[in-house]
């Protein structure tokens, strides 16, 4: 198995090494035979070479089974095209999975009393290939347009993915389609395609307009299990969902295509804190945990989860969670916990 490692820009360079240290531990201890393939892409590379990502980089990524990715700075300059969007498109990573599942103990740490962790367990399934991210744009001085593309094919594809997830052992067989069909008539195609697909798979399906869903997911998160939505709505709702997690630095994600899987924290390169060594590495580490789950390494995923929860319990956390520990100190603590729990045969029952 080949795993590309993209640190990217800003705090991507700080959080990914902490996740890689855990990957190295398991890979070396259990002889997994994972070949790590470092790939340098991003804004830093653009500044240095004039190109943020090359065709060769894409070829290398296509030769890998999985990719662990930090974050990339996307500047607001028409000549700069998002590297992340190019990778998603070229590898056809059409399903972006963003779980909203709080780490056990986080509400206690943050003194959140009006909410129960057990009430929050939803997965946002974001259509990742079209919508307002179609790339079809006409940019002018007086008028600029971006075409929002909804196709039946992509809608059915993402609905099938979300329905299969909802029907899975740990879910409640419930799917909510989030859309804006009252205004965007194109969303009727998305809504109808999702409903039909879910029904054909025996999944209980309902729908919500995106504006009230944004309110509802914070007010009554217990109502939601798996949520499927279009590209930009999924982007925005997943950052909003991180409020329920306690920090944007705790939100992991996975992007799946038919051939590859790509794991990344939901957050960006955070230029405001980059270089200070205080970024929360947990979103990156939990993204690695999602990679372990995808690999069928359930026990290792469980060990990582427990180790992250132990850091929360012992208050070994970065400033976003009210702590004073550095990225590296938190990463080192989680790795040492992983080793300790592994040696003590934890998670065997899972
Ligand atoms: P951001 O997620 O980088 O940061 C938003 C806020 O959250 C900042 O105050 C930041 O300090 C904080 N934050 C983010 N991650 C954190 C962490 N792990 N620990 C502690 N605090 C954390 O969003 P932004 O500021 O809007 O974007 C910055 C750059 O990142 C932009 O160029 C944007 O295009 C890019 N971006 C990239 C990705 C990606 O590559 N996946 C995702 C989002 C944004
Ligand atoms: C994300 C990011 C990206 C997106 C940007 C950086 C292109 O915000 O992964 O959530 O909009 O999808
Ligand atoms: Mn985003």
From TrEMBL:
<dbReference type="GO" id="GO:0009098">
    <property type="term" value="P:L-leucine biosynthetic process"/>
</dbReference>
<dbReference type="InterPro" id="IPR019818">
    <property type="entry name" value="IsoCit/isopropylmalate_DH_CS"/>
</dbReference>
<keyword id="KW-0100">Branched-chain amino acid biosynthesis</keyword>
<dbReference type="GO" id="GO:0003862">
    <property type="term" value="F:3-isopropylmalate dehydrogenase activity"/>
</dbReference>
<keyword id="KW-0464">Manganese</keyword>
<keyword id="KW-0432">Leucine biosynthesis</keyword>
<feature type="domain" description="Isopropylmalate dehydrogenase-like">
    <location>
        <begin position="2"/>
        <end position="334"/>
    </location>
</feature>
<keyword id="KW-0460">Magnesium</keyword>
<keyword id="KW-0520">NAD</keyword>
<keyword id="KW-0560">Oxidoreductase</keyword>
<dbReference type="InterPro" id="IPR011828">
    <property type="entry name" value="LEU3_arc"/>
</dbReference>
<dbReference type="GO" id="GO:0051287">
    <property type="term" value="F:NAD binding"/>
</dbReference>
<dbReference type="InterPro" id="IPR024084">
    <property type="entry name" value="IsoPropMal-DH-like_dom"/>
</dbReference>
<dbReference type="Pfam" id="PF00180">
    <property type="entry name" value="Iso_dh"/>
</dbReference>
<protein>
    <recommendedName>
        <fullName>3-isopropylmalate dehydrogenase</fullName>
        <ecNumber>1.1.1.85</ecNumber>
    </recommendedName>
</protein>
<dbReference type="InterPro" id="IPR050501">
    <property type="entry name" value="ICDH/IPMDH"/>
</dbReference>
<dbReference type="GO" id="GO:0000287">
    <property type="term" value="F:magnesium ion binding"/>
</dbReference>
<keyword id="KW-0028">Amino-acid biosynthesis</keyword>
<keyword id="KW-0479">Metal-binding</keyword>
<comment type="subunit">
    <text>Homodimer.</text>
</comment>
């Amino acid at each position: 198995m080949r795993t590309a490692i993209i640190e990217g820009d800003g705090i991507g360079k700080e959080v990914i090494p902490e996740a890689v240290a855990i990957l190295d531990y398991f890979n070396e201890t259990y002889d997994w035979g994972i070949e790590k393939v470092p790939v340098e892409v991003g804004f830093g590379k653009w500044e240095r070479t004039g190109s943020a990502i090359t065709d060769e980089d894409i070829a290398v990524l296509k030769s890998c089974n999985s990719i662990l990715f930090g974050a990339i700075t996307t500047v607001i300059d028409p000549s700069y095209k998002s590297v992340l969007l190019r990778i998603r498109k070229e590898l056809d990573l059409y399903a972006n999975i963003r779980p909203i599942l709080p780490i056990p103990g986080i509400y206690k740490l943050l003194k959140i009393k009006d909410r129960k962790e057990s009430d929050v367990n939803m997965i946002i399934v974001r259509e990742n290939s079209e919508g307002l991210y179609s790339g079809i744009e006409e940019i002018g001085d007086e008028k600029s347009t971006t075409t929002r593309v909804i196709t039946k094919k992509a809608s059915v594809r993402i609905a099938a993915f979300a329905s299969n997830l909802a029907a899975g052992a740990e879910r409640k067989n419930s799917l909510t389609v989030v859309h804006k069909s009252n205004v965007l008539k194109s969303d009727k195609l998305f809504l109808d395609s999702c409903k039909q697909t879910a029904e054909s798979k025996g999944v209980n399906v309902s729908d919500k307009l995106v504006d009230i869903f944004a309110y509802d997911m914070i007010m009554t998160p217990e109502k939601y299990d798996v949520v499927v939505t279009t590209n930009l709505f999924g982007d925005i709702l997943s950052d909003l969902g991180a409020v329920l997690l306690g920090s944007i630095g705790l939100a992991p994600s996975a992007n799946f295509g038919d051939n590859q899987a790509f794991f990344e924290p939901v957050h960006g390169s955070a230029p405001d804190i980059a270089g200070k060594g205080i970024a929360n590495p947990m979103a990156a580490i939990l993204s690695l945990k999602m990679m372990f789950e995808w690999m069928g390494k359930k026990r290792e995923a469980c060990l990582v989860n427990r180790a992250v929860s132990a850091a929360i319990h012992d208050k070994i956390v970065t400033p976003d969670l009210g702590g004073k520990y550095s990225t590296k100190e938190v990463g080192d603590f989680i790795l040492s916990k992983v080793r300790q729990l592994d040696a003590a045969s934890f998670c065997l029952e899972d």
